[in-house]
Amino acid sequence: MNEVDKYFAQFPKQVKEHLNNIRRLIFEMAPGVEEKMAYGMPAYHLNKKPLIYYAAYQNHIGLYALPVTNLKFEKHLKEYKCGKGSIQLPIDQTVPYDLIKNIIAFRVEETSSKKSK
Known about the structure:
single chain
């Protein structure tokens, strides 16, 4: 069991399912992504650049994809509590996997364009 699996193990079944679904999306959409723990949460790097982080809390899953991502998806994030570079997805609501998929795709493009510069 790696560190991310150990992190997931501490949560109830429903939360683990959400975390694993997000993890699967990341691996599907970001070939070559590196998974590790950072800041006490699952962290993913692509091309040696931060791609996305996420963590479970009592009432939400926090998604951390850098401030530029929140600006890019601002109109899609109106119903969620957001910080400068964070998005809170309530656990008791449907998790917006299509939105997460779009965010990951954007971040993959961002980290790939930075690689080529």
